[in-house]
Each structure stands twice: as C-alpha cells, then as structure tokens.
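Example record used in the benchmark description.
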Amino acid sequence: MSGTKALPNYVYLPPAAAQYYADVTRKGGYGLLPFELEWRDRQKQLIERGYLLRPRYSKDWKPSWIGTNIHPRSCEDSIILLNYHVIDATRNSDGMRVAIKIVVRESEELHIAEYLASVRGEEHHCVTALDVLPDPINARHSLLVMPYLRPFNNPEFQLVGDVVDFVGQMLDGLAFLHKHRIAHRDIAAANVMMDATPIYPDGYHPVRLHRAPDAIHDANPLSRMDHPVKYFYVDYGLSVRFQEGAVPLVRGKVGRDTDIPEMSSEEPYDAFKADIYALGNLFDKEIAQHFDNVKFLLPLIELIKQHDPDLRPPPDELVKMFKQMRALLQESDLRRRLVPTSEPAYERLFNDTVAVAREGFNNLRRMVGQS
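Model output (structure tokens):
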C-alpha cells in the first residue's frame, strides 16, 4: 500500500473496530457521492484519451481495507473529492499529475485558457489548457485539462525571499495578462496557486495535501528559497479578453474581492485598474498584514491600492518599480525568517535564534554540496 515504507502502528485497528468499519462500509458509509459517481462514469472515456483517475473512481472499485485490519482513513481510496467540478488525474504518457475541470462548452473561460496555451516564447504565470475533452456526461460541458497545482500559501511562506519571489511573479503574471488584453476580474488568494513539484520532489496527495501520495506518511516540503516554485493565476470564469483597441470597461460587482472601490453594477469601470487594486489587496491581506518584517512592500502596496483608479500604475510599470526595490535587498535580507505580526516578543527571540542556527546549517550544506 505504501511502497517500501513500513506502515505506522496507528493505521491498524483491533478486531472489533475492524469489524465495525467493515459493517459501515457494507452499508455504504464510504461509498461514492453522487458527483463522484459522475466522475466514475467518465473514467472509460478519460482512459481512452490518456488520463487515469485514482482507484476509487474505477468502475470495479472495491474498498482496499475490506478484509484487513487497516483503518479506512489510512487507505488512499477512502478519500473523497473536496471540489465536485475539479478532479486530479494522471496523464498516462508521462505520469504527469493534471487537474480536470468541468467548464461550460465554448465559454470565455475555456477560450482564454486555450489562447494562453497558444502563446509561445513568453514566460508567464497563468495556468493554461493542456487538453480539452468532450464531457461524456453533459454535451453542454467540456473537460479542461490543466497542470495540477497547489494553493500558493500551503505550506506558508517562511523567509522574506519567499514573499519577494511571490510578489515579483504575480506582478509579471498580471503584466502578461494585461498585455494580452485579458482582465482576470477575480484576483484573490483562492485563485493563485503554485507548481509545488520543486519543494515536494516525492509528491503529495492531491486531497490530503500534508500527506505523501500514499495518504499515510507526512509530506515534508523543502525550502522555497533553495527550490524555487512557480506561481500561477487560475480560474478564468469571470475573465474577459478585450479586442485590441477596445475600451476595457465592465459592469458588475463580481469576484471574491469586494473591496475594490469603483466596482459597480450600474456604472462602468476599468477592468484592468480593478485587477491592479485586487492584486494590491492580495499582497496587503496575505503578506503585509501577516508579517512584521515586510514593511519595504508597503509603499508599493499603497501605490497599487490608491482609491482613484487613474493613479494606479499599469503592471509593466509596477514590475520595473519592484525590480528596483528588489535590487536594494541583500541575500542576507532575503534569508531572514518572516516574523508573524501576532508573535510575542519572547517567542520572537527564541524563533530568531533557531532560524539563525538553521540557516547556518543550511549554508554549510550548500557549501558542501557545491564542493
């Protein structure tokens, strides 16, 4: 079940408990939910197109814990989906993990994802379509295949350099979107993700993110500073691509960020300027309000979050400003641990001491590795 690793003792049940869970299972306690049944029914067509779902969604699936004394929660195939319209899968040609999302056929979301996939020769931070499949369940839908990503803040940022890299990539990504006349219109923490492969080289479970692929052992991340990740904007469900020369005006109080001052259902507003504010708000809420030692970002955030949309610089200018700011930071600045705003002084002293010792050890490892 877990490769070469021995199973920990806590996965095993005493006989009476094993019988109890066997009875619960036979009564349907771990059965597929209605939306999971639909994914199971898509499995045949997905296999024909080169994608394999987890064993739980096989047509002939039988719970792997039946006949054993292993707790169901320690079995990978007991884990249900958290999001009914997105599922993880494996691309058979190369073993790549992908996400498959149900989208409306011929929707703007689908067109934008396909358009971004067609852009060649430009580095960007926007998730794109790897494949588009017909939905065998509903002819009004398509199945959008994308790289499988992880929430950008799971695990949490640890070092100042983690935050600096994140801010730079998000600014680059927004500049790219706007250059291609795309307004995201829903920039928020839930719609920013990362390819965490560099910090989880052995993988992790797609639902239980803190676990290894076997869903039993812990998945322990490496340092982002030493193993840089790539961040992506996701979810173009509210996005708009404007024709060249068209005025980017929209209406509607849409998206997760309700703080954008000009957003209105009656009066038109600039979708690009709203994106800029939303990104500044993301930096403010997810970084500036959480950590004490990122005050160097405050002038940038205040500039981005100006109440008057016309005073917010366009993303390409913000990229240049940020690069100038980044150039003033030393390597030692980037390797300082992030200090939570809620951390008491006595904890801060202890944690700073531990962080200095850990960084010294990591420096030694890097030097040994380079010799």
